[in-house]
Amino acid sequence: MHAPVRGRFAPSPSGRMxxxxxxxxLLAWLSVRxxxxxxxxxxxxxxxxxxxxxxxxxxxxxxxxxxLDWDEGYGAGGxxxxxxxxxxxxxxxxxxxxxxxxxLVYPCFCTRAERLAASAPHRSDGSAVYPGTCRTLTxxxxxxxxxxxxxxxxxxxxxxxxxxxxxxxxxxxxxxxRDCGDFILRRSDGVYAYQLAVAVxxxxxxxxxxxxxxxxxxxxxxxxxxxxxxxxxxxEYYHVPLLLAPDGRRLSKRERDLDMGALxxxxxxxxxxxxxxxxxGLLERSTPVRAGELVSRxxxxxxxxxxxxxxxxxxxx
Length: 317
Known about the structure:
Elements: E1 6-9, H1 19-34, E2 38-41, H2 53-66, E3 72-73, H3 89-101, E4 105-108, H4 112-117, H5 139-146, E5 152-155, E6 161-166, E7 170-175, H6 176-180, E8 183-186, H7 194-204, E9 209-213, H8 220-229, E10 236-240, E11 243-244, H9 260-266, H10 269-280, H11 291-294, E12 308-309, H12 312-316
Parallel strand pairs: 1-2, 1-9, 2-3, 9-10, 11-12
Antiparallel strand pairs: 4-5, 5-8, 6-7
Helix pairs in contact: 1-10, 7-8
């Protein structure tokens, strides 16, 4: 008998959720509930400068308002806690030390300007590929640079192509050495990086299904490589389309596009759920519906894979 599916919604409490966050949350919830699985709510609050407790409390309240519950996680507890990244630092430190013991971690003293100025190829999303500048520094060179600058710490990646089949986007492959480069595990200020934390959390919480935005598709090979090195199983992935404004701009928390404050004033939970289901391709038109009513008819084959333009009338309200 197979273990039940374990899915998660893992938002960053750095502001009010917006329509795009809710879109991912609803699809993650529906997929788990349709399979009779366990839903986990994890707060990805690693960044102490941006994440606040009041945002986490508001986020949980907004999810409940929409009718999206969870079985484990923030405010509910469970056997795989704690469910806030700021409380899981010891686990990240243990993983970091395990990778160090494999001889795969090294200090990087490059400034952001130095990294960007390096003659490295660029990824399709415009971010620079780290050229490995500090990988071959001698111990003496590292000690000299450490006198004037605290290093970040990077993971050596192999020159090999690895891929996986995404449940919505299909086949995806990437050569970590060529397309990504050695990536950061711990920042120079001591904060553990997103890639390490997510891999450790998904493995430690026995997450078997990850539903998230398509903008995170290319981070998956890095997380799978970390899971492999740490001896942890890799989940199945479904990368859902992004919601875009008519000008092609991605709806974002930073720009306060349709955040939950405005959405709760303009819609009932049923109206907003119907809108999200329509944008996903689950309903032919936007009609009021409760989240629970969508569970029995949920099917990934009906979910759009391409990014979705949100009608200007929705943006204007």
